Amino acid sequence: MQDRMEQCRDAVQQCLNDALAPLGERPVEVAMRYALGGGKRLRAFLVMEGAQLHGIAPAQSVWAAAAIESIHAYSLVHDDLPCMDDDDVRRGQPTVHKRWDDATAVLVGDALQTLAFDLLTRPELGASSQIRVDLIASLAKSSGIGGMVLGQAQDIAAETAMIPLDLAAITELQANKTGALIEWSARAGAILGGADPTALGHYAKAVGLAFQIQDDILDVEGDAAKTGKAVGKDADAGKATFVSLLGLTGAKTRARDLVDEACAALSHYGTRADGLRDVARFVISRET
Amino acid sequence: MQDRMEQCRDAVQQCLNDALAPLGERPVEVAMRYALGGGKRLRAFLVMEGAQLHGIAPAQSVWAAAAIESIHAYSLVHDDLPCMDDDDVRRGQPTVHKRWDDATAVLVGDALQTLAFDLLTRPELGASSQIRVDLIASLAKSSGIGGMVLGQAQDIAAETAMIPLDLAAITELQANKTGALIEWSARAGAILGGADPTALGHYAKAVGLAFQIQDDILDVEGDAAKTGKAVGKDADAGKATFVSLLGLTGAKTRARDLVDEACAALSHYGTRADGLRDVARFVISRET
Prior knowledge:
Two copies of one chain form a homodimer.
Chain A: H1 2-20, H2 27-36, H3 42-53, H4 58-79, E1 89-90, E2 93-94, H5 96-99, H6 102-120, H7 129-143, H8 148-161, H9 167-192, H10 198-221, H11 224-227, H12 233-236, H13 242-265, H14 274-285
Antiparallel strand pairs in A: 1-2
Helix pairs in contact in A: 1-2, 1-3, 1-4, 2-6, 3-4, 3-9, 4-6, 4-9, 7-9, 8-9, 9-10, 10-13, 10-14, 13-14
């Protein structure tokens, strides 16, 4: 699977480089390239593996993979701003507002969101106009006030209220904040292939929650040098996390159960979906 | 024309209310409604008048009109942030970051941008999938790093460098910062009707520049009570404007010439385009 993930990373980076080629060397343009570099490309991998299951070639699906990575990058740049999570380090590098300034970070995030929708209109995606419109509509739902932005607002509201969330509330928050984009990524391949995305959606719901539980575990057990971002932040802030609510052992058990659920949701695809099963296991074994 | 503009304002507000109806009462949701209220709705009017010229009913084109107003509102909310233009008053009301806070303003802008693309996917727009994709692709180009965001970056770079721009540079900056969205608005109606948008594009280029010249004139001559925002800001900041470069009389003459150009570009439509001609004249006679 490491090979396939690496191939996916290379293909997505190449696609993003092509998309950014017309840009110049103004700070905001340089910072866009910077913000789009690196990362695990987990969302891109979900898109491309799901697409392959439905007979869509990587040369096509990589454009949808690049789109979701562009949305993800925009959300990180804005989330790291001093008025939001105020993070100085991301993927082992200074965050955009530290390397440049807050105004550049606002504009870079804005432009990366726009770029994501732009990428879904590109002819290279090779899908019918109706499928593109479906992908664009579902990306808007997953990333906007019905999805990711709602999750971020719920996160800020919880911090402001200083009332720790219970398990149901934190599960809902995370389903919005990180789950919605992961779900879009897994479903995109089926949508591109004109197929029913329900099974991939179930898989992604479980993977998304496992991903967030592992994030909370890494915040406690992780190594800042490996994760490339600050650790212990949530515990220090007295924030409710899956670890504070379930305990470390309980959180690990729950994550493993979710990975089993995710793999089971793919039964209909047989062994062809082993790449997606591997990625579900990777999500809870990763150290970054 | 005042009647038609009022009808357009009502229709757009109704459409936005419908689109926002599923939202709750969290601060970010309340602030989205707040940011979408009021304004001249000039861009919406251009969309709906252009659409009517090509036989598209208001009940359809209003969705594209609402989309461009949502992009415009997002740009204002982010542009008003302390790290950007740092404005406290907009449309006669406290700006979003003053009324709520910076984090809410970042999220509101992000969600409004997403909403714009969402609105262009709605079935109520009634256009073919191919036409929707064309509108989405051109909106991404007009609002992203190839259009509005580039103009904002050029504006910030000019302020940081403290070197006043010359006429060619300020014209290019404004063509990006405000011109691109105005051009999209005017062209959208022809695209919706499957027609050639070139004439409407020429019209909009001239109107967009006249609009910005009038903004600079209002910054010198305007009444803060009427414009609903601070005046004299650019002159105080020693920024190059069309007024500083052309003089007040020269700027007024240039704006009038541009309006004549804009009206001439519509000759092929005959008197059916009188609404658009009126709006061009309105742009340089407005006090807000």
